[in-house]
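Weekly structure sync, notes
Attendees: PL (lead), two postdocs, one rotation student
Agenda item 3: pending single-chain targets
PL asked that the sequence for the first pending target be pasted directly into the notes so everyone works from the same version. It is reproduced below exactly as submitted, 706 residues in total.
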Amino acid sequence: MKRRFTSCAGLALLSAFGLMAQSVDTTPFLVVMQPGNEVPAITDTSSANAIIWVHVVKDASGNVTSGSVDFDVSTKFSSAVTVTGLHIHNGAAGVSAGIVIPTDLSGANTLPIDATGKLRIQKQVQFPTTPDVVEVSTIRDLLENPQGYYANIHTTDHGGGAMRGQLMRADMKVLMGLMSPKNEVPPTGVNASGVASVVLLRAHDATGAVGAATALFNMDYTGFDASAGTIFTGFHIHSQTVGVNGGVVINTGLSGTNTVAIDPSGSGNLAPPPVAMSPLDASWATAGINGELNTVNSLFDTPANQYINAHTDKFGGGVMRDQMRNTEQSVFQVTLLPANETPPVAGLTATGPTRIPVFVLRNADGSVAAGATLFDVNVRGFPAPTTITGLHIHQAAAGVAGPIVIFSGVDGAANKVVSATGNGNIFKLVNVSTAAGITALNALIQNPSGFYANVHTTVNGGGAMRAQLTPALATPAVTGIADAGSAIITAAPGSIVSIFGTGLSPVTSDLSGFTGITALTTSMDGITVTIGGVKAPFYFVSPGQLNVQVPFEVAAGPQAVVVTTGGGASTAFTLTVASTAPSIFTDSNGTAAIVENGGTFPVITATNKAKAGDAILIYSTGLGQVTPAALTGVLLQPPAGGFNNTGTVTVTIGGQNAVVIYSIASPFFAGLYQTAVTVPSGVTGTVPLVLSSGTAKSNSVNIAVQ
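Predicted structure, written out during the meeting:
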């Protein structure tokens, strides 16, 4: 059994996914294109920012077999031009090389750009192609070595290339906000509301520095009337915490002179073009949070320090806002097939390897407050040409036709998807903000087998191919229990433990989607765990592992552990409970959660050794009830003027007693303890450390001392 606990600052609770027969993955790359990067360099003030999305289908061994490349380029030419090419070349910076991924732009298929020099160019390329223009081997190498490839725009003035830039792999994060007029400072008093998502991309260059970033904004709004405004005059991210007004740090470009009309119904969607940020911007490296670079890094690390805000003609200072929030992600990998339709579609050999990440925000009780769904669908083998008129998630079991509950936005009108080859990728993030959609999301994460993804075409309007998000839920089975250090026989009231088994959860969830909670929930995705008949609060759930806190109310002695899901209740598994059962946290490499007590609290490792006389912190669980007493699942708030102290503990390092400075329950956690000790003199090398409470001893962990 693998333990999933890491780090001293808390618990990094991880999960693993197995390989499927086919799987889907998408990797974003950012490109900052400049004339000065051409060979030879061109002197001009033009620039462009590109997102290159590489969508791949992999076989059971994880090898790339096919896919699509999306170009999304925003140009800022210094004058009117005619584009004659948009390609990816396989060359390093400063080197001219051949085209390996061409779009359809050419001297015979040009694209004029007016005197503003601004245009958003979106193109998709399939691989492998016939004839074999784009090879799978090229895509594999690009994924491994993006700095060896550059994107290039060609024009009639510069046929060899007008501007170019190397590809930089990007990290992707989805943030959300529940926008309310009550959050404005002062509150605006209108009835409107909104659910906003921001897809944030951050790329590092060859030196490891952040070389570019892009934000994609999307907001569903509702409840607007004339009293709230008739046009949007701004949609921004600002730098400030709750209740404080701050300056704009990421600007979508909406303004008093560049407005968007609010739908006359009062409800609609606002999705401006991508906001690209790079060293070309004057505000990129501005000191403090107001710089784009600092803001992007802060959004990745501490999103709540920024807020998203919508402005209207009636409320120029902001009509509704919310702090940015992390989301929790569950991923469904499926393959859509015509044979799964009801009735099955005969004579169609198309397939749809698909990845659907679902991002959610949680209420304090664990229920879904809002969410977003990313459709990443690779259609393969349709008769060419094919028009896709629908892509949805429906609610029904296998073999049953059910209603649409989550729309992708693809329809048979202006938003249809036309494939000239019968192959392609649809990559769309949609917010789930309506009451019906949120109800569906709550049901989906409790039993995804009751939902299916479906692709519709002009030929097969009722559905061309579909797949359930997961197989039917199985009865959960518990096979073992572990604590921070090892498989265990005994745990203490208040301990954090991992329950291992099969069918323990329909999805993988942690605390990422919660904001401002003060207590852990005892119900997660339709799952409950009882220990001695008492519900246990959750830190993490996955099909093979649950991390929970043993309730303080559980009596000493052998106690039954029962997991209940939508698939039924498990057979009871016996856990022995004692007043204390100390266990020191370790990561998957066996490194103990022991840190230097001061500064940035670095972990003690073979390269960062402790010294005699150093004060160190040991993170553990299983030290039982504290004084003042803690409550089950409640994230501790230290009492005024003090802490929640454990009972007496002792620590030995290399067999010598270490002076205990203090031993407390860690503030803002439930079941986590920290014990501060002084490293004794005369101890060197890699030596064992043991934490004891009464006669109960922890697992022995190694610590490096110089």
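Discussion points:
- The domain at 172-326 is CATH 2.60.40 (Immunoglobulin-like).
- Residues 1-20 have pLDDT under 50 and may be disordered.
Action: rotation student to compare against the earlier draft before next sync.
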